[in-house]
Design brief:
3-stranded antiparallel beta sheet
């Protein structure tokens, strides 16, 4: 069994994931991506009822934590969940 003493990097990595999704807006983004597969910032903005700049900041934090990834299609970037552990967490949290 891993412990913080035997593998501190593992526990730091897991804590960073939880920190990234602990914000309600970021959790909502992750949940939306889990349900819909892909979204662009405009779709997220409508769902969250937040300014585009605010949504973009949350997206940046999720990207930095390697939770989501983006793919450019024309002028838009469409984001999707790439972290399997986060998908499992969302499924458990929302019983889906």
């Amino acid at each position: 069994m891993e412990t913080i003493n035997t593998n501190p990097e593992l526990f730091e990595k897991k804590a960073d994931i939880l920190k990234a999704i602990s914000n309600p807006s970021r959790l909502c983004i992750v949940h939306s991506l889990y349900l819909n597969g892909v979204c662009n910032v405009s779709e997220m903005q409508n769902c969250l009822d937040k300014a585009q700049s605010t949504v973009s900041q949350h997206v940046s934090k999720l990207k930095a934590a390697n939770i989501i990834s983006g793919e450019r299609k024309g002028k838009e970037i469409y984001y999707s969940l790439k972290n399997e552990e986060v998908k499992e967490i969302v499924a458990i949290f929302f019983k889906e």
